[in-house]
Design goal:
Blueprint: H1 4-11, H2 23-33, H3 39-57, H4 64-79, H5 88-95
Helix pairs in contact: 2-3
Enzyme class: oxidoreductase
GO molecular function: glycerol-3-phosphate dehydrogenase (quinone) activity
EC number: 1.1.5.3
């Protein structure tokens, strides 16, 4: 397995009702912990995975679904610090 999407296909990671709110962070850290990728690369895997999950649920944002999405966003940003993850573009600029 090379990324979280491959892991999702094998294990259904992030496909439950919470859409991977907590398990995706844990899975990304395991990629780093077991030496498959660096910490920065693990962050990129997580960002890519979360963007894919949001892409699938954005079209249904209305009413209760919108409130649930706002709550999920608050969890990602407030509790888990998703806004502090390095974006792919900023990491690429630093390497050049």
């Amino acid at each position: 397995m090379n990324n979280l999407v491959d892991l999702r296909r094998r294990t259904r990671l992030g496909m439950g009702p919470c859409q991977g709110e907590l398990c995706s962070y844990r899975a990304a850290s395991l990629f780093s912990e077991y030496g498959q990728v660096s910490g920065c690369q693990s962050s990129h895997l997580l960002v890519d995975f979360l963007e894919e999950r949001w892409k699938g649920i954005k079209p249904i944002f209305w009413g209760d679904a919108l409130r649930e999405a706002e709550f999920s966003y608050w969890i990602y940003e407030g509790l888990l610090g998703a806004s502090d993850l390095p974006s792919f573009d900023s990491a690429t600029e630093k390497q050049q």
